[in-house]
């Protein structure tokens, strides 16, 4: 949504400014020793930095909205500006503190003066919610999301670009169609300021591999009327559903015996088995319990070949709290749930949503796609390809993307090839090739075991929602330094320098 001017001084004694149009984001390593002992100190540090970095009036008040302490005992504070008890959630700042209380990194949106909205809050939450449903032409009474709530959030906040109070609303539906809406409603007159369907899809341009009739052990759940394709062996329940296109309702896949081999069941079998592999990877490698680290169920819906009137046969997507998979066209592609790296890609979108929450436009969107590819690469580490297993007629050159050589699949591998377009949310699926290449180079230099820890730490602790490529580089450098020292940091720096992010 927002392009940002990136300002950094991670290792240099002076500040380097990288200019892009509009708005402002930055990452700073303090040149002086700043220490914090309590929450008040954190707020003072942020106000000091903001006042130094902006040319507008005095800095606003800030509120600490999240505090996390990682396994290295570093503390990560997330703050937002506020006015009259309402937060400006589009201006996020993070303060990172080492175990001794020293501030090691401050990053986020620094150019924000005292926030004074020009309107008033006249609408109630219910009135705003009704306006939101009307804007997407959806009957509120008919909307459903399985066992989960349709309305994920509805709060009065401040949109700093508009300088207005708004209701920030998030909706997730399974019926009448899968969707994940973010809608901003003017809190004064009910006008729709912005609405975005946050469906995040794996790029299907190219060729892929899918469900191949191979037998494999599966976890199922016995019930009074048979068996459900539901894995209850882990702290998080994994379930596979089949969409009935005639009704728009997804039902859990069932059978009367323990063998699930019908054509309509096979996509669900792969979806659940591979989701289990991805769950195990994140649990065993990072001790993460499901995409939200709170044991939420992992739901896969198969046979989703139409979405909002668009043919989605050759597609897969994360839609806020579940995944959907198309069947493939059966000429080039098989079912999209038949590749563990595709499922890893989609589930990582869920982790990104719950951590960095990268905006799905331009460079933040490309980073969103890239982090999904990076962890798919770590999970399916036998090659450097993404999506090679969904091709009906596989060959060594058939894949959706390559981490090692993005240009083989029409992606840039260097900033001098950066794609500038209004399509695909600013080229998120194309330009992800640049950070993908940097991740591949990092892994070659440091090895998988170190690279995956660096990337996970950056995603869950340092990356902010509007991060540009340079911000991701700095976050990864800091993570490498935290975990493995100066040599690892230099390897990260060299990898990103090699793709033109300097």
Automatic annotation (TrEMBL):
Domain PepSY: start-end pairs: 122-195
Keyword line: Hydrolase, Metal-binding, Metalloprotease, Protease, Secreted, Signal, Zinc, Zymogen
Signal sequence, renumbered to the chain: 1-25
Single GO BP term: proteolysis
Enzyme Commission code: 3.4.24.-
One Pfam family of this chain: FTP
GO cellular component, one term: extracellular region
GO molecular function: metal ion binding; metalloendopeptidase activity
Cellular localization per UniProt: Secreted
Domain Peptidase M4 C-terminal: 356-501
Needed co-factor(s): Zn(2+)
Chain ranges of the Peptidase M4 domain: 206-353
Chain ranges of the FTP domain: 62-110
Active-site residues (renumbered): 346, 429 (proton donor)
Family: Belongs to the peptidase M4 family.
Function of the protein: Extracellular zinc metalloprotease.
Protein name as annotated: Neutral metalloproteinase
Organism annotation: Staphylococcus felis
């Amino acid at each position: 949504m927002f392009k940002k001017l990136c300002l950094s001084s991670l290792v240099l004694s002076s500040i380097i400014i990288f200019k892009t149009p509009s708005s402002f984001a930055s990452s700073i390593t303090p040149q002086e020793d700043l220490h914090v002992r309590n929450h008040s100190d954190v707020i003072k540090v942020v106000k000091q930095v903001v006042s130094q970095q902006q040319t507008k009036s005095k800095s606003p008040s800030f509120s600490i909205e999240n505090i996390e302490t990682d396994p290295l005992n570093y503390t990560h504070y997330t703050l937002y500006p506020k006015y009259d008890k309402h937060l400006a959630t589009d201006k996020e700042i993070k303060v990172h503190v080492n175990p001794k209380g020293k501030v090691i990194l401050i990053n986020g949106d620094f150019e924000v003066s005292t926030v004074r909205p020009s309107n008033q809050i006249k609408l109630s939450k219910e009135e705003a919610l009704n306006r939101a449903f009307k804007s997407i032409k959806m009957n509120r009474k008919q909307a459903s999301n399985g066992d989960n709530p349709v309305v994920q959030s509805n709060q009065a906040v401040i949109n700093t670009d508009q300088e207005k109070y708004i209701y920030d609303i998030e909706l997730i539906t399974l019926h009448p169609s899968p969707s994940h809406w973010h809608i901003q409603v003017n809190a004064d007159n009910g006008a729709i300021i912005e609405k975005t369907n946050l469906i995040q899809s794996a790029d299907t341009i190219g060729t892929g591999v899918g469900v191949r009739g191979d037998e494999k052990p599966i976890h199922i759940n016995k019930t009074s009327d048979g068996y459900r394709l539901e894995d209850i062996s882990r702290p998080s329940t994994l379930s596979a559903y089949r969409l009935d296109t005639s009704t728009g309702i997804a039902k859990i896949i069932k059978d009367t015996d323990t063998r699930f081999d019908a054509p309509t069941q096979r996509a669900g079998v792969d979806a659940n088995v591979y989701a289990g592999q991805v769950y195990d990877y994140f649990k065993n490698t990072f001790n993460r319990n499901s995409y939200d680290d709170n044991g939420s169920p992992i739901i896969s819906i198969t046979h989703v070949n139409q979405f909002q009137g668009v043919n989605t046969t050759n597609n897969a997507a994360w839609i806020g709290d579940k995944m959907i998979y198309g069947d493939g066209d059966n000429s080039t592609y098989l079912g999209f749930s038949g590749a563990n790296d595709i499922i890893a890609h989609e589930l990582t979108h869920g982790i990104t949503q719950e951590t960095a929450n990268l905006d799905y436009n331009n460079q933040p969107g490309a980073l969103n796609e890239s982090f999904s590819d990076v962890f798919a690469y770590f999970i399916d580490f036998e090659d450097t390809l993404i999506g090679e297993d969904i091709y009906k007629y596989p060959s060594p050159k058939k894949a959706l993307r390559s981490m090692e050589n993005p240009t083989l699949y029409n992606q840039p591998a260097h900033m001098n090839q950066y794609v500038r377009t209004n399509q695909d949310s600013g080229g998120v699926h194309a330009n992800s090739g640049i950070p993908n290449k940097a991740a591949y180079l990092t892994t070659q230099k440091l090895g998988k075991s170190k690279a995956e820890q660096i990337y996970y730490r950056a995603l869950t602790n340092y990356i902010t929602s509007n991060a540009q490529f340079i911000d991701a580089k700095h976050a990864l450098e800091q993570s490498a330094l935290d975990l493995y020292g100066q040599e690892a940091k230099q390897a990260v720096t060299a990898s990103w320098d090699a793709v033109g992010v300097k």
